[in-house]
UniProtKB/TrEMBL annotation, chain A:
The keyword Cell membrane does not apply. It comes from Arenivirga flava. One of its GO terms (cellular component) is cytoplasm. This is Phosphoribosylformylglycinamidine synthase subunit PurQ. Its EC number is 6.3.5.3, 3.5.1.2. It is found in: Cytoplasm.
From TrEMBL, chain B:
Part of the phosphoribosylformylglycinamidine synthase complex involved in the purines biosynthetic pathway. Catalyzes the ATP-dependent conversion of formylglycinamide ribonucleotide (FGAR) and glutamine to yield formylglycinamidine ribonucleotide (FGAM) and glutamate. The FGAM synthase complex is composed of three subunits. PurQ produces an ammonia molecule by converting glutamine to glutamate. PurL transfers the ammonia molecule to FGAR to form FGAM in an ATP-dependent manner. The gene is purS. It catalyses: N(2)-formyl-N(1)-(5-phospho-beta-D-ribosyl)glycinamide + L-glutamine + ATP + H2O = 2-formamido-N(1)-(5-O-phospho-beta-D-ribosyl)acetamidine + L-glutamate + ADP + phosphate + H(+). It is an enzyme of class 6 (ligase). GO terms for biological process: 'de novo' IMP biosynthetic process. This is Phosphoribosylformylglycinamidine synthase subunit PurS. Pfam families: PurS. It is found in: Cytoplasm. The keyword GTP-binding does not apply. It comes from Arenivirga flava. Belongs to the PurS family. SUPFAM superfamilies: PurS-like (SSF82697). Its main location: cytoplasm.
Amino acid sequence: MRIGVVTFPGSLDDRDAQRAARIAGAEAVPLWHGDHDLQGVDAVVLPGGFSYGDYLRAGAIAARAAIMTEVVAAAGKGLPVLGICNGFQMLVEAHLLPGGLIRNAHQQFIRRDQVLRVENNGTAWTSGYEAGQEIVIPMKNADGNFIADDETLKRIEGEGLVAFRYAGGVNPNGSLADIAGLTNERGNVVGLMPHPEHAVEAGFGPDTDAAMKSGVDGLVMFRSVIERALQPA
Amino acid sequence: MPTIVVDVMPKAELLDPQGKAVAGALGRQGSTRFTDVRIGKRFELAVDGPADEAVLAEVREIAATLLSNDVIEDVVAITVVD
């Protein structure tokens, strides 16, 4: 199993995403934004950061990078794609996921260990979770406020496209319907604002009731896509 | 050399957190007659040559596909300024 991680100018968590892929048991393949080459990987992660300074709109310029032509085409054929934070913003800008992400309602950058509820465990990246399971994943962003018009929201809810919802009584940024992450209809493309790659190794994850920094709930996302690849089609 | 100005605004029905923050600041400094503030973007595109219909058609395309995101924003004006 080879998981490609795209580095854009301004990516911050590309190395962390590579590390998460390795800890989960995959080979991490660095990909470059300026290439038209996915190097035959079995899945792609669009990492967090502030690609191209997030000028214009968050993720907007990255969504038009050379490699995204390949990512969009491959996603259309079923390649698993995970967009984390800035990567989620790229996925909505590339119209692989519906709606949009704007400045947090309170105008602040926010970093916290956030409780999420897994709403859809039928996707390539969430099949290792129980439906309704609550997980803790660190988040850190300024533009994580999900919005969509009424018609789009109705479609998102009606088709079960909400992958993760903010839970634990906290909606950290004003997102519509507490939406933290989405999937496409096919379930191969998933985007979320929180950072699963920061919750993959005890000692470096979010705090849990068991011990400080022991949270590894994010690892399941990477393991899910690996398990899926191992199963006969 | 003409300049083409593209104005983009957040959609009226959607939240504009930045505008809301400025409206709050206005209220705090005593400017109470303004009921709402919305913040948009202005792009100035310098063009080498006349801003003819072909150029304007290209600007309309660019405005709709790159300069704005039609999920969250509207292109409200495209104006040629000499």
